[in-house]
Specification:
Layout: H1 8-24, H2 29-43, H3 49-54, H4 66-78, H5 82-89, H6 94-98, H7 106-116, H8 121-129, H9 141-156, E1 161-162, H10 163-179, E2 183-189, H11 190-193, E3 198-199, E4 202-208, H12 213-221, E5 226-232, E6 236-241, E7 246-252, H13 257-265, H14 268-280, E8 284-286, E9 289-292, E10 295-296, H15 302-308, H16 324-329, E11 344-348, H17 359-368, E12 373-379, H18 391-404, E13 412-420, H19 431-436, E14 439-443, H20 452-463, E15 470-471, H21 489-499, E16 502-506, H22 519-524, E17 529-532, H23 544-553, H24 567-578, E18 590-591, E19 597-598
Parallel strand pairs: 4-7, 11-12, 12-13, 13-14, 14-15, 15-16, 16-17
Antiparallel strand pairs: 1-3, 2-4, 5-6, 6-7, 8-9, 9-10, 18-19
Helix pairs in contact: 1-2, 1-7, 8-9, 20-21
């Protein structure tokens, strides 16, 4: 394969965009669906598409016909697809940006383009403010208001990308620099190292001797993924990748490396606070070192940098000036959660609802990753958009799990459901069916625009149901796409702590919800945190690392995380919620604060 060939996710992304472009231009809908189906087929593949291309086996994959196979072959061999490039060049570039506004699919964007000559966000904003959108079918005053909110949201986060995308984009640069013979040390820095949810750019720091820096900068700026060089000097280079990711490289002397790494990692407020501490100690601190007079104090690593200021090493995730310096000074920094502390996974979907892989495949993939248990939680019946399970299919899945158990040894599969929280806070199954499940994740998936009091009462009503063991993605946010819904999260956390309901930290990179800023608030309320990847395929299981990163950033330790317990302990946690509960057969119930049924 050529050096500029694309991986599976990148190829699937191009196919998905091709499907949208065809729909935008009014092409045959069957052709558009073929590309969308091809993208989904690729996402479920365990093999590398390049291998299928070489062995001429692409057309043997369900969902990939002759035309799609040809497109994948071109993408896998030369890194682009000529039909895609031509089609993309034939439409206004701003239409793809408009497609990122929530509620605007390809059909609606085509109507805006064809009927109102709306081709970019500025034109869309003007049309919405002038009430011209409501003249089109499917638009009204409410949709105009939502579109204006969406535009404001896009602008607020312009230039930012998900940490997961930044991590993928940074990986080839770091690998190249680690292998480069002139590079002595290399590390990610900046907000990506602090485990921020979204980042503006990627910062990479290297230790390189001065005479070798031009050679290293040449290697950096000539990477295959580089589309544009923003700047290039002997100590700093800046590029933009073909995917739009800004990557900055800083080169320093080896003796400066620990100080520069600390400076480039910490938030502005953290660094300012440390410089003030240094000054109070009669020292001077900058990105180049800690100085006593003109003498720079030596440091082999960041631990010694902190040591010069009378502090233990502070983990990168905590460097936000949110009490970490004072806590470190008292010797009270927590032992943060580590990836190896997590023993099992809760919250995954299968082909039973909207997942892309079978129950068996999800179980096997979880076992291969070394986990000891898995919680299956497909969507419930109200989630018609996600092929939610009715009562018969829930019980059929229970039988499927039971049939697997003799082959699993001491690996445990918990049978759960992700139940929609309905408008009044009730769940969408009768109590007797809920009682048959090992656990229930209750989540809001609709009516996000409810006011703060209504949404808060809705969620509180849901978690008071004795069957509910976990509150899913508690604020409903989608990073860079949708703001959290209005909710009094403090009241919800207090009630969850009182009831013994776990609150999810959804590890999907687009959610990362519970927000890390609420981590200590949750712990203070006595809340147990359940980290769940919300995985819809086997690759999604690996999103657990993003959840662990956010948990660390929220000051969490393994004591506060449900998944760090053994399978037996998790089972006991699930059962404790239901103690004393007598479910009523064939009745869908709500419960009050005291656990009594509400008619």
């Amino acid at each position: 394969m050529a050096e500029n060939s694309l991986d599976k996710k990148a190829i699937a992304s191009v196919l998905e965009e091709m499907s949208l472009l065809l729909e935008l231009t009014g092409a045959n809908p069957f052709k558009s669906r073929a590309f969308a189906n091809g993208a989904r087929a690729l996402e479920t593949l365990e093999e590398d598409p390049a291998t299928l291309v070489i062995e001429n086996r692409l057309e043997s994959v369900k969902g990939i016909g002759k035309g799609i196979a040809a497109a994948i072959t071109e993408l896998a061999t030369r890194g682009s697809f000529s039909d895609h490039e031509e089609l993309k060049a034939s439409i206004p570039a701003g239409l793809l940006e408009i497609l990122r506004i929530p509620g605007l699919g390809a059909k609606k964007v085509r109507a805006l383009w064809q009927e109102l000559d709306v081709t970019d966000l500025e034109a869309l904003e003007s049309a919405a403010k002038e009430s011209r959108l409501r003249a089109l079918p499917g638009f009204g005053a409410k949709s105009e208001a939502k579109i204006l909110e969406g535009i404001a949201h896009r602008r607020r986060y312009a230039g930012r990308v998900l940490a997961s995308k930044a991590e993928r984009g940074a990986e080839p640069f770091v690998e190249m620099l680690e292998a480069h013979p002139r590079v002595r040390r290399v590390s990610l820095a900046g907000s990506l190292r602090r485990r921020a949810e979204t980042v503006h750019d990627v910062d990479i720091l290297v230790a390189v001797d001065p005479e070798d820096r031009p050679e290293v900068m040449d290697a950096f700026t000539s990477m295959a993924s580089v589309e544009r060089i923003r700047g290039r000097g002997t100590t700093k280079g800046s590029v933009v990748t073909a995917g739009g990711l800004a990557v900055d490289l800083r080169a320093v002397a080896e003796e400066e490396f620990p100080y520069a790494l600390h400076h480039l990692t910490g938030s502005k407020d953290h660094n300012t606070a440390l410089r003030s501490r240094a000054k109070a100690m009669g020292l001077r601190m900058s990105e180049w070192g800690v100085f006593r007079g003109e003498e720079r104090l030596g440091a082999r690593d960041e631990a010694e940098v902190f040591g010069h200021l009378g502090l233990p090493w502070i983990p990168p995730e905590l460097r936000e000036d949110r009490g970490e310096i004072e806590t470190a000074d008292r010797g009270e920094l927590p032992d943060l959660l580590e990836p190896e502390d997590v023993r099992g996974i809760l919250h995954v979907h299968t082909t039973g609802s909207d997942g892309r892989e079978s129950l068996g495949a999800m179980v096997d993939a979880t076992r291969r990753r070394g986990y000891r248990y898995l919680g299956i939680s497909d969507h419930s019946v109200s989630a018609f958009y996600a092929n939610g399970l009715d009562a018969d299919r829930v019980r059929e899945q229970a039988r499927e799990i039971e049939a697997l158990r003799p082959e699993l040894g001491d690996f445990r599969v918990f049978h759960g459901i992700e139940s929609d929280i309905l408008d009044d806070g009730s769940l969408d199954y009768d109590d007797d069916l809920l009682a048959e499940l090992d656990f229930v994740i209750a989540s809001v998936h609709s009516r996000f625009s409810q006011d703060r009091e209504t949404m808060t009462e809705r969620v509180l009503t849901a978690i008071r149901h004795p069957a509910v063991t976990i509150l899913g993605h508690p604020t409903g946010r989608l990073l860079l796409a949708r703001e959290p819904y209005e909710i009094d999260l403090g009241r919800v956390l207090d009630e969850a702590g009182r009831l013994g309901v776990a609150v999810e930290l959804n590890a999907n990179p687009q959610r990362l919800d519970l927000d890390w800023r609420s981590g200590r608030r949750a712990v203070a309320a006595g809340v147990t945190i359940a980290i769940g990847p919300d995985a819809h395929d086997t690759e999604g299981l690996d999103d657990m690392r993003f959840g662990v990163g956010i948990a660390r950033k929220g000051w969490l330790t393994k004591r506060e995380v449900l998944n760090c317990r053994t399978a037996k302990q998790v089972e006991a946690f699930f059962r404790r919620r239901r103690r004393g509960w007598t479910p009523r057969k064939g009745v869908r119930m709500r419960y009050d604060r005291d656990g009594d049924p509400v008619s």
